[in-house]
């Protein structure tokens, strides 16, 4: 068996490759001055202050105060309106006011429903809002799809002109719109006291077209090209691909359209002069001087219930639809 002799390695300089080199390098690094990393917090209250008991008390006190104050500012008018209908006229004008009605009763609501014929007014308004919703989806969706995906000639100019209409105050175009509805160009039809006077102006909305176009821009082009390879035309692509993936923004446009028509006052006042075809806002305003104050408040509560319910049911879709098309990809 051969004899093996182990020759120990001699220590080398710090720059060498021997075992002494790592130790020397570590000692050299230890002698170097270390940089102090400063972490700056650009907030009103830094996380370090929140770790203290005093900081947590201040933080939660401010947070609870702000949340409760803003909640009360928005909820209190609704509470005052609902409970005001349960009071008598003497209780409503009493100073200081009473925050609770003497007794909880729905008599004023029943009286408002009968005296103001709210069933007819709500039915008319539902007809106007439903028709405006259908025309808005039919016209604005196709216009936004054409501007986004079909890219027609002068499409950018058309979109710029649509957006320019948003800079014009509504009261400025009120008279030209009224004259247009009274004598429809080319056809010469008089649309006053008809649902068309509400439906057509509601569909001509540049803001809705802009929202829809921004969302359609975020749809991948490859998805539409794959449908084209399979033989689908523009209409089939719109119906089978674009509309199903655009439900969030369609929900937003639907809610905005229905709420806008439901609460509109000036335009229906001009074009719906027939008492049998008035919307709920015009009908309540025309009868307000003949009704007790608690009955009037009750009618306002009934008229506002549909829009409040729609908002609470679909509030999540509003934010989801408004932010869905903000980023591409």
What are the main properties of this structure?
0% strand; transmembrane helix; mainly alpha; 2 domains; disordered N terminus; 329 residues; MetI-like fold; 16 helices
Notes on the protein architecture:
- This protein has about 325 residues and is an all-alpha fold.
- The protein has 2 domains: about 1-45, no CATH class; about 115-325, MetI-like fold (Orthogonal Bundle), CATH 1.10.3720.
- It is built from 16 helices and no strands.
- It has helices at about 20-30, 45-50, 55-85, 90, 105-115, 120-150, 155-165, 175-180, 195-205, 205-215, 220-230, 235-245, 245-265, 265-270, 280-285, 295-325.
- Helix 5 packs across helix 16.
- The protein is flat, with a radius of gyration of 34 Å.
- It starts with 19 loop residues before the first helix and ends in a 5-residue tail after the last helix.
- Residues about 1-10 and about 10-20 have low confidence and may be disordered.
List the SSEs and their pairings.
Elements (H helix, E strand, L loop, with lengths): L19 H12 L15 H4 L2 H32 L4 H4 L14 H9 L2 H33 L4 H10 L9 H9 L13 H8 L2 H12 L3 H9 L4 H12 L1 H17 L2 H6 L8 H8 L5 H32 L5
What's the β-strand tally?
Answer: 0
Order of helices and strands: HHHHHHHHHHHHHHHH
Compute the number of structural domains. 2
Beta fraction = under 5%
Terminal Cα separation, in Å? 73 Å
> What's the overall geometry?
flat
Structural class determined from secondary elements: mainly alpha
Write out the CATH superfamily name of the largest domain.
Answer: MetI-like
Q: Mind telling me the CATH class of the largest domain?
A: Mainly Alpha
Which second-level CATH architecture of the largest domain applies?
Answer: Orthogonal Bundle
**Number of alpha- plus pi-helical segments:** 16
Biggest beta sheet attributes = none
Output the radius of gyration. 34 Å
Average pLDDT, all residues: 81
Pick out the low-confidence regions.
1-8, 10-18
